[in-house]
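Notebook B, p. 112. Complex prediction, attempt 2.
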Amino acid sequence: MPLSAIEDQQILDEIVGKVEAISEIEPGRYAVRIALAAATVGTDPGQLINMLFGNTSLQDDVTLHDAEIPEELVRGWGGPHYGLAGLRKRTGILSRAFTCTALKPQGLPPEKLAELAARFARGGIDYIKDDHGLADQSYSPFAARIAAITEALGKVERETGHRAHYVPSVTGTLDAAVRQITDACHAGIGTFMVQPMILGLSSFHRVVEANPGVAFFAHPALAGASRIAPALLFGKIFRTLGADAIVFPNLGGRFGYSPDTCREIARTALAPWHDLEAAIPVPAGGMTTDRVCEMLDFYGADVMLLIGGALLDARERLTEETAAFVGRVKDYRYG
Amino acid sequence: MPLSAIEDQQILDEIVGKVEAISEIEPGRYAVRIALAAATVGTDPGQLINMLFGNTSLQDDVTLHDAEIPEELVRGWGGPHYGLAGLRKRTGILSRAFTCTALKPQGLPPEKLAELAARFARGGIDYIKDDHGLADQSYSPFAARIAAITEALGKVERETGHRAHYVPSVTGTLDAAVRQITDACHAGIGTFMVQPMILGLSSFHRVVEANPGVAFFAHPALAGASRIAPALLFGKIFRTLGADAIVFPNLGGRFGYSPDTCREIARTALAPWHDLEAAIPVPAGGMTTDRVCEMLDFYGADVMLLIGGALLDARERLTEETAAFVGRVKDYRYG
C-alpha cells in the first residue's frame, strides 16, 4: 500500500507498520525490526502469522527471525494446559527425561499397531505417539485404532502396573479433529498430537481451547520449509497456542537442523515467557538408543526423547530394546 | 522407518514409497521421482500435503517440484465450482481479461471502505477483493464491512447499471470462515477469498464443499516460503480443492517471481486437467495501469488483472484511474 494513498492521519500514526531499526549483520545481509499494530491481528492466530509473514513469505530472500508478541495476546491464547510442570505432575516423572516412541509403519491394521504398542509398553516407555503419517486411513481408521490400542495398553497396565500414554495424531478439518478428540477422550486418552501448520494455526488453537483437560504434542510437518525461525515457530507460536510438547528434528539425525538451532528451540520452549507453562522439547528423527547419553548431555533432564524406527527395527526384541532405551534414560546421572 | 523393521510383505509391496527414478539435472542437483500409495492419503487434503511434503519440508535442500494426483482424488475433491468458464458466464465477461482491485488500507472503518468500493465500482471494475490483511478486526468487523460495502455497491448498480463483485476475505477457524460465508451469502455476496495455507488445506476444501453456489479466490499468504513449486501448489492443489481464481505475485512487481514461474502458474491453472474447470490466474502485487498491455501480451485474455495500491494512490481521482485501467483492459486487442 503506497503511504501516499493513505488519507487518514490516525492510520498513518497507529496502523501502518514502522521500520524501527536496520542493521547490517554481515555484508549484504540485514536485520530489520518492524513494529506492527496489534489491532491488525485482533485475537486470531492465523491472522498473527498472516501479519508476520503472510505476503512476506513470498519474498524469497526474507526470513522471519523472531517476533515479540504482545502480552495480552499471549495471555489470551494461554499457552500449554500442562506444559513441562503439568506433565511431570500428571505422570509422576519428576526429575528425569521423558521417553517416547512412534507407532508405524503405515499400512498396519489397528490390531497390529496395538500389538506393537503393548510391546513398547512392556518395555516401560512413557509415551507412544502415532507416526505423523497415520491419519484416518482405510487400513487403520482412527476410531478402530483408538479402541484397539487403549485396550492393549490397559491390559499391559493391569499386568505390569506400568501405564504408557498413547498420543494419537488428529488430522483433517477442525470438525474432524474435534470429533476425534471427543471420541478418544471417552476412551480415556488424554494426550493428542496435532500438526499445526497443516491443520491451520487458528484451528489448532480452537482445538486446544475446546479441550481444557487435554495435553497436546505439536508436530512440525510442513513447518520446516517456511523460512520462519524454528525457535520462534515452535518455541513461541506453537507454545502460546497451546503445545505442551514440541516435536522437532534433532541434530545428527536424518534432518539438517544444526546444534545451535536445536539448542535454541529447546531454550525458547523452556524459557520463562509471559508466565506461560514451559513446553517440553521433543528432539526426534532417526534417533537411536546409543545416542541417549549424548542427547541428555546436550538437553538435560527437561526433554522428551523420541526413538521410533530404531526400536521397531529390533523386531522380536522390541520390548527389550525399549527397556534398554528407558533404562538409559532412568539411569542417566542428571546434573 | 527402517525397511528392515517392516515384517508385513503387503506393506512392503503396497504401502512403502518407491523411488522410481533419479536423474542428475545439474552437477549435485537431482530430480527424484517417488511413488506413494494413494491409501496413505485417504481423501483428506491436509494428509495429501503431509504425505507429499510433511516431514520432507524439514529437509532444507529438498523442493517439492511436482506431483501427479490420482484421478479419483482430484475428481472427488472436484476443483472449482465455476472456474474460468463459469465466471465468464456468471459475469457476462466473455472474451476479455477480468479486472480486480483491492480494498485497503487496514484501519479504515467499514463506511470508509464502502466509500472506496463505490468509487472503484463507478470506475467500472469487475471485482473488488479485500486486502489479504483485512480480517475480522475491531476497526472493521467482518459483518459491518459486508453490510456497508454491499449497500454501497448496490447503490452504484442502481445508479449506473454496473455491478462490481465484492470478494471478502474469510479468516479464522473453519467454523468462523463458514459463519462468515453464510452471513455474507445472505447479504448477496457470491465470491470469497481464502488463504488456504493459513486456513489449512482440509478446512479450505470443507469451506468450498459446504458452499456449492459460491466462487473462491485463493490468496498465496504464507505459501511463498514453502519450497513447493508455485505451479503445483496454486495451479494444481489449490485448484483441485476448489479455487476458481488464484492470486499470485506477478513478475516485475514487489515480489521476486520470475517470468518462467508466472507463465508456469498461469499455464497450470488453465491447462486441461482431470476434467476440472480451469482456475483464473490473478497476477498481482505492485501492478500499475501502465503495465496492462504488457501483462495482457504476456498472459492473454484468460486472466484477471489486479491493481490495488496504484489505484488507491490516485486518491481523489480514484474513479478516473479505475476507469482508465478498465478501459485499457476492454480496449486491448486480444489476439
